[in-house]
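INTERNAL AUDIT FORM
Audit reference: QA-55
Scope: verify that the stored structure record matches its stored sequence.
Auditor: D.O.
Record contents follow.
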Amino acid sequence: MSIPTTRKPIVSEPMVSEAHLASFDRTMQLMALLETEAQSLREHAYRVTDLATSLAVALRPDDADLAVKVAVGALLHDVGKTTIPTHILNKTSRLEPSEMMVIRCHAAVGATLLQPLIDDKGVLEIVRNHHEHWDGSGYPDKLAGNAISLGARIVSVADAFDAMTSDRPYHRGISSEAALKLLYASSGKAWDPEVVEAISSLYESGRWPRTMV
């Protein structure tokens, strides 16, 4: 299914300033440039953006700046994967340790690629730190707890949920209910407990993004 490149963040219009919209439009231009070589990542990026932005609004309803940073950061969180050889990205068997190291570089590489293009520390933190873990066991910087920006903690949960529920070369997607159980199992370890509670509340209340249904 083709997804248009003119989408706007899931934030109510009165909350969004002209500067926010200009930032989002620049991001969509970047996404359009990436689509030809990273089409397999595009739909994942849009689903993660919808879910992460909904989480940001649920957690901080009066913080439009957070919602827009999350939308932009989520759209571009995997941009570093465009530098990874296709045979590694699409491998169906267990990755070798050297291949896993290449995969794990994508967060830092993505932030480095975007630094000359996006003058927003919050967005760059999301791209670089969306694989950090609440207990400090993530990568690339081994950050823990509130040392990880809230935006990165939100995108981390949204990214993990979509990875669990989507078909990948190396696994079949599981149900939303099963994914939520896995998130709860690692709440306080991999993920911020507040964000895990928020995604559960979104699901149970029916305020689920359309792209996640």
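Auditor finding: record pair retrieved intact. The domain at 16-212 is CATH 1.10.3210.10 (Hypothetical protein af1432).
Action required: none
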